[in-house]
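User: For my dataset I need records formatted as: sequence, then structure tokens, nothing else. Please produce one.
Assistant:
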Amino acid sequence: MDIVMVLPVAFLCSWVCSAVGLPAMFGYILSGIILGPSGTNYLKSLVQLETLGEFGVFFILFAVGLDFSFEKLKKIWKVSVFGTMAMMLIMVLIGVSLGLVFDISPKYSAFVAACLALSSTPLVIKFLDKGEGVSRHREEKDPTETDYGALLLGILIMQDVLLGMLIALLSSFATNSSATEDGTTLAYIVLLAKILGSMVGVLVMCVIASRFLISIFFLHISKLHSKEMMTIGSVALIFSLLKITDVLHVSMELGCFVAGAMIGAHRNELVSDVEKLVHPIRDFFAVFFFASVGLHVFPSFVAYELTVIVWLTFAVIIIKFLASVLVLSCFLPKRMSPMKWIVSAGLAQVSEFSFVLGSRARRLHLINREVYLLILSITSLSLLFAPVLWRLSQWQARRLLDRPRNNGYSSQVCYLSAVIIRCKGC
């Protein structure tokens, strides 16, 4: 009966958060705080709640995989692939450097930096849908809209891929930690090679299955005209890939992501049908995951370290913004350079999936409680500040529009004007 109370409290808290313009996710976390050890201490079955939360992670990553599309990466694949990797590398290098200055273990600082390097896909999609009228599933767009929306979404898609790889590496390093107890460089190289080899094997197998088996599998299911069978078939595919990746000592979460990508590769009515059926399941179990996150949040810690957390959050936002501007300045052609401010603003927050990474790392005893709470706090504050930075980027873009249109500047202003017209709703 402990867990039964989670849903009503989560509903009320998310309702309040939605009413004031905050993501429902904060309401779910708040319900965990209220019912957990730092609140009323009503929940006693913490293990059961965290187990249900694990299913939330599985279905969340499956939904991320469904949205993965190679078609969206074709036109801007260089920026999406190399730009995203460059942003991640810059964040990790800065994190490790700062960690050495403050005598923090490179393992901790590199992991925290990798978590903070990810940006929130759902939040950016909300910005685009509200401000530009860009729908993630629309296929017909005008040229400027495609450049602008596809660039943000392409970077976020590659971040989702890096998320799956990070989780896979995280779980594998923890599982094989005994192999690296001697701490030699060779041991880590061998372990990394084994992990990457297993990941490549899984991906090759899934590409073959996606091309020759998935469409046939779901075609036969669709002939039954049964939503029940379609739902069970989709969930069975998720759990099958989950088991295969677990046997191969690759992250189970990566298996869920790959299962979604296998279906998403077809980009037809099948994807839409599966999304309609699986998304409610994802939303249901996501409540338990974010509530389980709230169990480990202690308001006393946040209040005591509030000044430090706020300054660290501002530092993360500024570093991510400047790193994005720097990378985009190198990769974007001059004609598209003005939109780097808006794209960088969209990326200058921390993804809610850092909760997933942090929770997994804490369960595997790779980070301590203080580091975990720090990740949660910075992520939450950055998501709160994200709309403000987005609006500031619109203001900066409008300033460019107000400048005189000389010959050297005319093409950039003309391009940017098309972007701003779509951002007025923001």
